[in-house]
Amino acid sequence: MKYVFIGGIPAAGKSYLAGKVAKAFKVQHIDIDRWRSELKKDPNLEPWVNFFWHQNEEKYWQSTDSQKHWQNLKNQSEAIWPIIKEKINKVVAAGEPAIFEGVNILPHLAKADLDFPGIYFLGKSFAQIFKRLKKEPCWGRTEELQKKEAEMFIREGSIFKKEAEKYGFKTFIDLRKAEKELLNLLKI
Predict the structure, then answer these.
(1) Which residues fall within 8 angstroms of residue 59, CB to CB, at 6 or more apart?
(2) Residue 21: pLDDT over 80
(3) 112 CB neighbour count, 10 Å cutoff
(4) What's this model's pTM, rounded to 2 decimal places?
(5) 112 touches 77 (CB < 8 A)
(6) Using CA atoms, how far apart are residues 51 and 56, in angstroms rounded to an integer?
């Protein structure tokens, strides 16, 4: 298989895993989150690309449960997916092997539109996610908000797991097992 994807919660280690495998086996690592800077230049997509950054984070975490947060992620992903899918198709058309990774590769979108396999990496624990968010914040401006974010991401992981399995994708919390499956999918 020339192409695979890694989806899952933020700060789980998707980029690390994709980068490690891509470097070792000389395939492209395509972090679709990096396409956001280009996507937000489109006035129709900007509100979705920056949806979470347009919120008052403290109020958001006080008023949003995991189901509502998942629905917000789903709405964001579906809004920007047509462009992401177009960009993925251009990479595939070029013929060079690649690993695509990003939080917006939701299971129902991958099942409908990607002609290659993938996995979902969900993070091992609250402590691990919180440590990563402290080092490289996704959204949280304070340690307290980073804790709330980590708590939500872990809860979001159970929703990702359910959705991924519904569409036939494997999920992982262990890096070595995820890497082994990724290599199996790449047939390396």
Answers:
(1) none
(2) yes
(3) 11
(4) 0.93
(5) no
(6) 11
